[in-house]
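Sample entry as discussed:
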Amino acid sequence: MAAVAAGPGPGSGPGDSPEGPEAEAPERRRKAHGMLKLYYGLSEGEAAGRPSGSDPLDPTDLNGAHFDPEVYLDKLRRECPLAQLMDSETDMVRQIRALDSDMQTLVYENYNKFISATDTIRKMKNDFRKMEDEMDRLATNMAVITDFSARISATLQDRHERITKLAGVHALLRKLQFLFELPSRLTKCVELGAYGQAVRYQGRARAVLQQYQHLPSFRAIQDDCQVITARLAQQLRQRFREGGSGAPEQAECVELLLALGEPAEELCEEFLAHARGRLEAELRSLEAELGPSPPAPDVLEFTDRGGSGFVGGLCQVASAYQELFAAQGPAGAEKLAAFARELGGRYFALVERRLAQEQGGGDNSLLVRALDRFHRRLRAPGALLAAAGLAEAATEIVERVARERLGHHLQGLRSAFLGCLTDVRQALAAPRLAGKEGPGLAELLANVASSILSHIKASLAAVHLFTAKEVSFSNKPYFRGEFCSQGVREGLIVGFIRSMCQTAQSFCDSPGEKGGATPPALLLLLSRLCLDYETATISYILTLTDEQFLVQDQSPVTPVSTLCAEARETARRLLTHYVKVQGLVISQMLRKSVETRDWLSTLEPRNVRAVMKRVVEDTTAIDVQVGLLYEEGVRKAQSSDSSKRTFSVYSSSRQQGRYAPSYTPSAPMDTNLLSNIQKLFSERIDVFSPVEFNKVSVLTGIIKISLKTLLECVRLRTFGRFGLQQVQVDCHFLQLYLWRFVADEELVHLLLDEVVASAALRCPDPVPMEPSVVEVICERG
């Protein structure tokens, strides 16, 4: 390091001076370093790795541009001890090696680019030399060509002027020749039927003949052409009036007549008249297919024929009219719109007649496909004739058919429900007629519920075809909103559920009317069906409907809770009516048994009457029947001696009989008074109280009606001693068996007590039978 820090010696040569090659090497390195900084876009400070706050002129900055090794070494020797000097040397050697490694890596990574750039520059030098030679030759050739062109132009100048004049004369002569040959050409074209060519010839010469008609020769040509043109127009009109050709040919005739100067208003009327004839023929053909004698084609084939025949012809007429008579303005457009509106209305009437024949069918797929093609076909005329409103009318027809289809499916669901009820009636009646056991109520209920649900799902799937994405009219506002909410949900599903409830409620009429022929089991089954709908089915069906038909309409709809409440009310009415009907059946037996017996002269009772046994049997059968569909219900705690209880009225009856001889003539009045006072303190029984949805409540209602009927019948009769005892035996028998069916056994006891007490009040000799004897008779019975 001392050697490095030492300056040049006195014997140094010129090659060792700072101006020599050794001094130029750092300068070259610095220049190369600057070029690299420019290439990588680095500033002076960033390239040097110098802190932003350092002085760029500091001679001791190793990375600075003004670094001086002598000053740097002097600073190190003055400020650093030997150990730090050794560390600085080691660090500097390491940095030098790292910089050499980085330089080598940079060269290796960019070696291919350097080689490619060198080759490219070498090729460019060679190509530019060749290009310069070719450009020189091209410039020489262009100069020679320019010289030759100038000499040729100078030589042919006089001839060019003469040729131009002769060409003008030749063109004029050709035009004159065309004018003189025009009559013959027109005649030949007319004879050959080339009417279009004849009109073009006439159009080319019309202006010239009109301009020079004051010259006799041109006047004669014009007169001849006018005669030929008149004959041509006559033939075109004749061809147009014959109407044997199609719409394009007739449009061509009208176009040629317009080119010949025929009045547009008259041609417009004739064009529409001929178009009307062709389109009316198509309509007559479609109407003939709807006649009674030939079998009508399916609706898809009918709409295809109408679309290809009438609608296609109407499109051709409309496009040809708009092209030919565009100059007519709004008046002509209105005339065309009125024409299309009239014929379109007749076509729509035929389509509606054919669609009406499909309303009785069960398959919606063919009908929806036919409506889709019908709607698609009318898009083109709807766009051409917006003022005629054909597209809107077609959409209205589709919407009307969809509404009618919803009504048809609603009627189908109603019929299916009535059919299920008929099947249930037959299933309930068949076992009785055949004398064997039929299907249970639970099985019948499951069959009815599954059948109705399957019909609802089938109807939803059928009407869902109207909203399929591939159907052209499914994106209309009606099918996105009102059809889904008011049509399917409210009209079909909610309407059917309410119709089902109304049909079920119709069985709750008075017994003298429709309800009299209704089997009680059917009432019970319908009540359970409505209750199941209230608990789960209605919610499931409406959720399924809302998922299939994404409603985009904000119209109010019936809440699920409202429908559930209606179904529950229907179930309640049916169950109440079932209780009344079954109570009426048992009441009729009890009433007849009381009214047809002579209670004054009856014999001493030896057994229970058969009618009481029948009442117990029927009540047991009803209990089994109701238990098939409804849960048990809640009962009050029963006493342990329910089946051994004796009536308190017996002792009171004996007391009345014991003290009766001592009564004055007013004694019966006192007895009635005592009975009435006893009723005031007894619990009031509501015979027609609301029925709950369980077996105990149903049986309680039936038994209350039956025993109340027995009580009222007893109050209308007069009993002898043995008659009172028979009533006592019958009531005890009923008490033995009926208490287990009701919610509160005290209810049976109170009613039966009242029956016996009423019989005792209406007995001249009220001597009751001993309770032990009554029990023996009842046990034996």
About this structure: Residues 1-23, 44-49, 646-671 have pLDDT under 50 and may be disordered. The CA atoms of residues 11 and 324 lie 115 Å apart.
